[in-house]
Design a protein that fits this description.
298 residues; alpha+beta; Immunoglobulin-like; Aminopeptidase; eight-stranded mixed beta sheet; four-stranded antiparallel beta sheet; 6 helices; 16 strands; 18% helix; globular; binds coenzyme A
Length: 298
């Protein structure tokens, strides 16, 4: 009798990319030689395209996913190219299972994006929390434990988390920038006191994340540059922490002049990150105020 460890009966998989093509992987740890059937659903009413997850991917093999022959790729149907359809991916033989990382939207050009700072009124904090919750769900995490409440977001933004009694229009050491496209929040960048910037060192910490639908279009760079403009004159340098295997983020940070400061363990989990920093010039003209917006078109 073969004893299958608990959890191995469930298929694993993920959608990696949605754009001109939809690609990802799926496999069943209990039957590592089996090639799973995948259903890609485009738009509403859905247009169904079937595929077999049988393409070899060296990254899957080195991650221990069987022989690595579990990748799939399906082109976006020509008729849907300009329509930015929602894309869902399911497994034909496992009804009800939706691959991690879905639903997504097939975006081929970035278009108009606005960058601005979050305000503590007008439902802004609820929208920010909604965006953060959506990101956690896409990554398969738990919203209740991983996403701060609206009250916590408000306390952080107004400095009340540190016991200070900050006013909305006089934040000097923190700012939460968001990117919006077609009325939807698609990215955020938080600058303020916190790990890995040592307290009292003149540095502020930066954290950035974009919705996967709009990664790779140059928006991350623009959001970082907006953060640098906000921070210039407010702190001597920005610090961040990045996982060593996050090649995309590392390339972006190095291109923007960040230098390695060595390893740093995430306080909650001990996970080792690269700590990086960039020195900021004094501001040219006036510093970037939280009330300002920047419009980007790609
Ligand atoms: C990291 C992140 C913010 C970058 O934003 P982005 O809009 O995708 O990046 P950009 O399109 O601006 O690309 C910036 C640079 O990244 C690098 N890059 C872009 N695509 C890449 C890829 N597929 N692989 C490796 N590097 C890549 C290049 O250096 C690029 O510079 P270039 O345009 O001069 O070639 C975004 O991908 C993201 O949110 N990732 C997930 C969350 C995350 O990792 N956050 C950082 C945690 S520390």
């Amino acid at each position: 009798m073969t004893i299958v460890p608990e959890g191995c009966l469930d298929p694993e998989g993920c959608v990696d990319m949605v754009g001109h093509r939809v690609s990802g992987w799926a496999w069943l740890p209990a039957e590592p030689g089996r090639r799973l059937r995948v259903e890609v659903l485009f738009g509403n009413p859905p247009m169904l395209v079937e595929a077999l997850a049988d393409q070899h991917r060296p990254d899957l093999e080195s991650a221990g996913k069987g022989d690595g022959q579990h990748g799939f790729a399906v082109p976006l149907p020509d008729s849907l190219a300009g329509r930015e359809p929602v894309v869902d991916v399911r497994l034909t033989d496992f009804p009800g299972v939706r691959l991690r990382g879905t639903p997504r939207r097939a975006i081929l050009t970035l278009g108009l994006v606005t960058l601005r700072a979050i305000r503590t009124m007008d439902g802004d904090l609820r929208r920010l929390r909604g965006f953060l919750a959506g990101m956690v769900r896409l990554n398969g995490g738990c919203v209740d434990t991983a996403v701060p409440s609206v009250a916590d977001l408000h306390a952080w933004l107004t400095g009340r988390d540190t016991g200070r009694n900050g006013e909305d229009d006089c934040w000097t050491d923190r700012c939460w920038l968001v990117a919006e496209r077609g009325g939807r929040m698609v990215g955020h960048c938080r600058i303020g006191p916190g790990w890995p910037a040592p307290p009292g060192s003149g540095a502020l910490a930066l954290g950035i994340e974009l919705h996967p639908d709009i990664r790779g279009f140059g928006l991350g760079r623009q959001l970082m540059l907006a953060a640098h403009r906000w921070a210039a004159g407010r702190c001597a340098r920005l610090e961040l922490a990045v996982l060593p295997h996050n090649a995309h983020a590392l390339a972006l940070y190095r291109a923007l002049g960040y230098v390695d400061l060595g390893p740093a363990a995430l306080p909650e989990t001990g996970e080792i990150h690269h700590r990086m920093a960039v020195a900021l010039p004094a501001p040219h003209g006036s510093v970037w105020h939280t009330g300002r917006s920047v419009i980007l078109v790609n």
